[in-house]
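May I ask you to review the protein record following this short note?
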Amino acid sequence: MKLTARINKQELKKAIRQVRFSLDKYTKGDVFFRLELDIHPEMMTLRAPGASVPIEAHATGFGRYLFPIYLLKQLTKPRPEEPLVFTIADRYLKVEQGPEIIRFSLIEYLSGRASALPELPMNYTDRHVLALRARYTDHTLRDMGVGSQLQKALLTFDDKLYAAFEELKLYGVTIEELKTLAERKIRE
C-alpha cells in the first residue's frame, strides 16, 4: 500500500506538543515512544495513550501507522514554513525536503487491526495503567508502548503498598490483605 500525505508543519508541531503534554509524566527521555497516526484524505489523527489530536492533512488514501515520536519531531524542524510531504510504501517513509528524499524504515502498518494503543483518559493515572493488566498481558502492554508507564506504576504501587503496611502492621494488617484490597479497587 502506498500513501502520500501533505501536512502543515506548524500544525503538526502543535499537535505533537499536545500529545507530549499528556505523555510527559511517563515518557521523558523515551525517544523510541511511538504514536499512532490515523491518516484519512482530509485529516490525520495523532494518538497516544490518553491523547487523540486531529490535524488537517491532504492524503492520497487511508492508513494507520505507528511512528516514533522523535521522527515526527525531527521532520518538523527543517524549513518550518514549508509543508511536510511524505510517502509511505512497504513500511518505508520517504520525505520530500526540497530536491532531496530521506528514507526511514521504522514504520509499522496497522492493517485492519484495532488500535495499537490502549484507551486511557487524557489525565490518566497509575491506577488506569494498572487496570489495563486486567485486559492485556504485560508483554502486550509493552508492545502497545506503555511498558515504561506500567513499570513506573508497578514501582509506585509497591512503594505505597509497603508504606501503608508499615503504618498498619501494628493493627495486625498483613501485606497480602492490603495487596488484595488494592488490586480489587484497581479493577473496579
In short: Strands lie at 2-7, 34-40, 43-48, 51-59, 63-68, 84-89, 92-97, 100-104, 108-109. The two ends are 42 Å apart (CA to CA). Residues 147-168 form the longest helix (22 residues).
